[in-house]
Design brief:
The complex is a heterodimer.
Chain A: H1 5-15, H2 28-35, E1 41-43, E2 46-47, H3 50-60, E3 68-74, E4 79-86, E5 91-98, E6 104-111, H4 123-126, H5 151-172
Antiparallel strand pairs in A: 1-3, 2-3, 3-4, 4-5, 5-6
Chain B: H1 6-21, E1 45-55, E2 61-76, E3 79-93, E4 96-99, E5 107-113, E6 129-146, E7 154-164, E8 167-180, E9 185-199, E10 205-222, E11 225-238, E12 242-257, E13 261-270, E14 275-276, H2 279-284, E15 286-287, E16 290-291, E17 299-308
Antiparallel strand pairs in B: 1-2, 1-17, 2-3, 3-6, 4-5, 6-7, 7-8, 8-9, 9-10, 10-11, 11-12, 12-13, 12-14, 13-17, 15-16
Classes of the chains: A alpha+beta, B mainly beta.
């Protein structure tokens, strides 16, 4: 039996090899410049009350995982929000820029560490969110296309944007 | 059985392994035994190494290490094909109850001999047995009808024919999956039916049927790591018609999933609530609520490591 354990040794040796590596594609500053070039930003973090959290969950149908939301007010109107959603293995960090009327100006993926679905960083996939409002369906395979092998990531980013649009209505809109 | 030298296997395995590592990403099975509806995406492949150790019968020594190398390919977004190589090492000594020559079909109390499923027919029952065998090649096809990420529940159908020099098998599964808590909590259920055709004396085949179900629940408790529990219930049917026994297993599973590779370690302990129905199984297989015989052991540990390319 001894010699047969060589079969086990090879895969086990891989377990101790370097594994997943975090890739940060954009810093907050870079995401801000990508979505709102030549604008200035004022930090305006929001800490949701339980009433606000419930209102967002009711309006979006998406659970709010954190009460603290990183928000910046954009000079000349608009909002810049950094958010996280659950990925297959790790959190996916992304940024959403909202126009002054609350519609999506642009989204940017800041961190993505999953095996498949790197295409969610592609401009074509992200462009599907442009102009979406809290009234939009934001549903996978309906107004947002899925990416093969990354359905979980696509759905969670889509749900995340839907939640942030409800967040805008509840916490930012005046 | 077809015996292949350890060196030949080692070389083939190492070559396949190194090829896959150099092209690695990651995709995973979060349970040791229970399948989920997650498939390899279209145009992608996966290499997976399975190692399962199972041991302890009613008496003496019995241990098997099953090896399986799996090459998996995503043919379409909802359809995956895989090829398995199945081989194992077995050691047995004084592990099965001896039959009473004066009363065939009944055990001779307090007397044991070397035997069991993987011990060669005709081997001397009074000496220890150990051997390494290449067992069979399997083809696996899984078609997903519903995705747990888009539909209320995930549903997939599975079919696996296997062919070996001593045995042929056909296996069907219905796979269900339901996710909660942003897909971090996963429940899966597999309903299986398997037909085995084992070579018997005289050149014919002996038919056996198996109905079994596996279920598991797993929670991703921190980034990259999930832990859960699995349950397995196995029913054996002689000639695919005579219900012989029902055996139950329960145990924990832990899973790591990274960007380039994943690993799952599962443990199952047979529960002492098994039931024997046929005379043969009542006489030879059941012991203190455990089902042994040719089919089961008390402890199972499985390691699965996957690399995607």
């Amino acid at each position: 039996m001894k010699s047969e354990f060589a079969f086990i040794a090879l895969p086990i040796s891989a377990l101790i090899a370097p594994s997943a590596f975090a890739v940060q594609y954009l810093t907050v500053d870079q995401a801000q410049r990508a979505i709102f070039p030549r604008k200035s930003f004022t930090a305006a973090p929001v800490n949701l009350t339980s009433v606000q959290r419930k209102a967002i969950e009711r309006a979006s149908g998406v659970r709010v995982l954190r009460d603290e939301q990183q928000v910046w007010r954009v000079s000349g109107g608009g909002w810049f929000i950094v958010d996280e959603v659950v990925g297959k293995h790790e959190f996916i960090t992304y940024a959403v820029g909202l126009n002054a009327d609350g519609s999506v100006k642009q989204i940017e993926v800041m961190d993505y560490r999953e095996t498949y679905g790197g295409e969610i960083r592609n401009e074509k996939w992200r462009a599907q969110f442009v102009g979406k409002t809290s009234k939009s369906p934001l549903k996978l395979d309906s107004d947002i296309k899925n990416i093969s092998g990354a359905t979980l990531s696509c759905r969670h980013v889509t749900d995340g944007v839907k939640r942030l649009l409800a967040f805008y209505e509840v916490a930012l809109k005046r | 059985m077809l015996c292949i030298t350890a060196m030949e296997f080692r070389l083939a395995f190492a070559a396949a392994f190194l090829f896959c590592v150099s092209n690695a990403h990651a995709h995973e099975a979060i349970f040791g035994w229970t399948y989920t509806t997650d498939l390899t995406p279209k145009g992608h492949g996966e290499f997976e190494q399975w190692v399962t150790a199972r041991w302890e019968k009613e008496h003496g020594n019995y241990s098997v290490v099953d090896f399986r190398e799996e090459f998996e390919y995503g043919v379409a977004d909802n359809f995956q094909l895989a090829l398995y190589l199945n081989h194992h090492y077995v050691y047995a000594n004084d592990d099965v109850p001896a039959e009473d020559p004066a009363h065939p079909g009944n055990r001779l109390p307090g007397t044991y001999q070397t035997g069991g499923e993987d011990v060669h027919a005709g081997y001397s029952p009074v000496t220890p047995f150990d051997s390494y065998h290449f067992e069979s090649v399997s083809l696996e096809a899984i078609y997903r009808l519903l995705s747990p990420y888009k539909d209320p529940i995930g549903l997939a159908l599975y079919f696996e024919p296997s062919i070996g020099d001593q045995e042929r098998e056909l296996e069907w599964k219905v796979i269900l999956q339901k996710n909660w808590l942003e897909d971090r909590l996963v429940w899966a259920l597999n309903i299986n039916y398997e037909l085995e055709f084992e070579k018997a004396g005289g050149g014919g085949y002996e038919r056996d049927g198996m109905f079994e179900w596996f279920t598991g629940v797993s929670y991703r408790f921190i980034r990259n790591w999930s832990a859960g529990l699995e349950f397995w219930n196995h029913h054996e049917f002689a000639d695919a018609t005579v219900h012989e026994h029902s055996a139950y297993f329960l145990g924990p599973t832990i899973h790591y999933g990274g960007e380039r590779w994943w690993a799952t370690l599962g443990f199952l302990h047979q529960l002492p609530i098994g039931q024997a129905f046929s005379h043969d199984n009542k006489e030879f297989a059941v012991h203190d609520g455990y089902i042994f015989g040719d089919e089961h052991e008390k402890y199972y540990v499985r390691l699965r490591v996957g690399f995607n390319f």
